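Page 37, continued from 36.
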């Protein structure tokens, strides 16, 4: 089981690396988006915005999958620990049998204390695994996110973006501010996922 545990931990790290690669590619697409907006190439800007959002979602998917693989690794770790605890409990039971025969009360008390400590350690590991499993999130990408990203990049670099939105209104700086706030919130959530 330790071999499977190692493979799971390695897979989780590999998925994290893929996530970081996607984040770098997202940044590169945003730079291409800025250049396209600067040149007035709205269609090219839209394509780069879609690519940036796709890379961002791919990074989140890799991170989410990494979290799930890590949760499975923790379950395997729990199984390995349970196997060790079971072996220890068998040893404790044998020791308790011999202690009970001699009726050495101090020895019985020490063995029971050891038994309780092992169960407390198991509870701590189980709680850590449960916390890791509850920290996964889902995210969808609407088309309005593409428009918001294009407005945000244009706003950040002081560029004028003249494109018609689906409802017939032209892009405004207020939309870019909202998109910027949403982007900050998503960045904070991603940072929390990486820490957790």
């Amino acid at each position: 089981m330790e071999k499977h545990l190692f493979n799971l931990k390695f897979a989780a790290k590999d998925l994290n690396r893929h996530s970081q690669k996607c984040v770098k590619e997202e940044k590169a697409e945003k730079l291409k988006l800025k250049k396209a907006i600067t040149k007035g190439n709205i269609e090219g800007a839209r394509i780069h915005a879609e690519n940036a959002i796709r890379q961002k979602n791919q990074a989140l998917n890799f991170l989410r999958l990494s979290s799930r693989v890590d949760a499975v690794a923790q379950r395997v770790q729990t199984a390995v620990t349970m196997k060790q605890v079971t072996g220890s409990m068998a040893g404790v039971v044998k020791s308790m049998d011999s202690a009970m025969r001699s009726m050495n009360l101090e020895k019985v008390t020490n063995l029971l204390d050891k038994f309780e400590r092992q169960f407390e350690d198991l509870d701590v590991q189980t709680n850590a695994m449960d916390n890791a499993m509850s920290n996964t999130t889902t995210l969808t990408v609407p088309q309005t996110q593409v428009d918001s990203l294009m407005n945000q990049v244009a706003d950040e670099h002081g560029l004028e973006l003249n494109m018609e939105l689906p409802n017939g209104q032209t892009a405004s700086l207020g939309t870019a501010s909202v998109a910027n706030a949403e982007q900050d919130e998503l960045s904070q959530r991603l940072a929390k996922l990486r820490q957790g």
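The first helix runs from residue 2 to 38. Flag for discussion at group meeting. The chain has five helices and no strands.
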